[in-house]
Amino acid sequence: MSDENSEQYKARLLKLENLQKEGNNPFSITKFPVDAFSLDIKNNFEKFEGNEVKIAGRLIQRRTMGKAAFANVQDSEGSIQFYIRMDTVGEEIYKKFLDFDIGDIVGIEGTVFKTKKEEISVKVHSITLLAKSLHPMPEKFHGLQDIELRYRQRYLDLIVNPNVKDTFIKRSIIIKTIRNFLDNLGFIEVETPMLNLIAGGAIARPFVTHHNALNMDLFLRIAPELYLKRLITGGMDKVYELGRQFRNEGISIKHNPEFTTMELYQAYVDYEKMMDLTEKIVLECNKAVGNGEEIEYQGEKINLSSFERLSMIEAVEKFTGENFSMFENDDKQALNIAEKLGVDVKDKNTWGDILMLVFDEKVEEHLIQPTFIYDFPASSSPLAKRKAKNPDLTERFELYITGREIANAYSELNDPLDQKQRFAEQLKARENGDEEANLPDKDFVTALEYGMPPTGGLGIGIDRLVMLLTNSASIRDVIIFPTMKIREN
Fold it and tell me: To bridge 334 with a disulfide, which of 133, 261, 351, 449 should be the other Cys (CB 3.0-4.6 Å)?
């Protein structure tokens, strides 16, 4: 963090004050005519050799040899060496250059050439201080090692850890790829309210705020689902939204209070169509960032050429040996099985609730390779359509990779009477202490009463997808400014 009492800070501040007294305040400079970048010069040396260029960036290294020096400047694309001689730029400019500090922003005009060691460089004709760095950079060879400081001061993280920028460039590519892919399929991107009268569309605890003019509480949205399905009712058959959601829950390597999702809805298709679409989106994004079919995530080899499909009951049996279909709707037997497996449940839990708990605690962590888990209990899926042959289950799936949920999808519930009953059950759960249960949305039920066609819906966690495709261990590695606790001095 900033230390204005350090000797280095005071020394750099004194240099700035002296420059200002001399009429050379770097912060009065408003522009520099950059016409070339480090990576382009290196990749196209033949085109640039012998030509004059104007480059700018941060001074990151310097090696002085009397009346000449080699140094490196870092721009938005990388770094490049430059060579400066006193007899070329003049004694006054050279001495000023020697007084520059590592971290200062400089503008350079010079000629591109290769040194005797074949390093592509710029021979300086003139150099200008464009901004003064009042704090020293972290030590070059160790970088910024304090993980928490990296997240708090992301600007510093980007300066000293080049791979960090690469992660966020790939994040941008992934988001563009999803947009282009859906746009080409005829989906329409829309924007729905972030301030909601009712926190609906997901099971989560919301953030609450207050609108002074209307004197009423509002919720930051936890999901855009109910608005998007209103649009399906209105005749927009293919819609999606890519944006931030907010959930007032814990922070971990997998969770941040604000995060990014892509949600889409398509009329006249079901959750099996959504499975196919999910697989294509993941593969398109993986290809776009330059990965092969096999990727590595934190030491695990992940094969994206094959996506397994298992019902939740099949997955629980595969990893625990217990077949919940043998005692369906038998709450007591389900409790016995949970106790046998060491899963802590409360007496009020139903067969479906217990199946979900057993899956969460005993199965999810084993789903390393891409796996669709489908047919969730109705009690945990208040917005999903029931299976025609088994109404205790719903046409819902989640995609798991590396033991983490990447996507969630349904054949959407479009029966207004069933939806009204599900909301009533959620309200009862809320009254019994479940703060994450859905609040009833009467207007959404009214929309369904006008008739919503059979619809498939899909939500993909962008942050977790980026984590997977960039081999990032924590969600904070892929959110450029993650939520952090206030640091006490």
Answer: 351
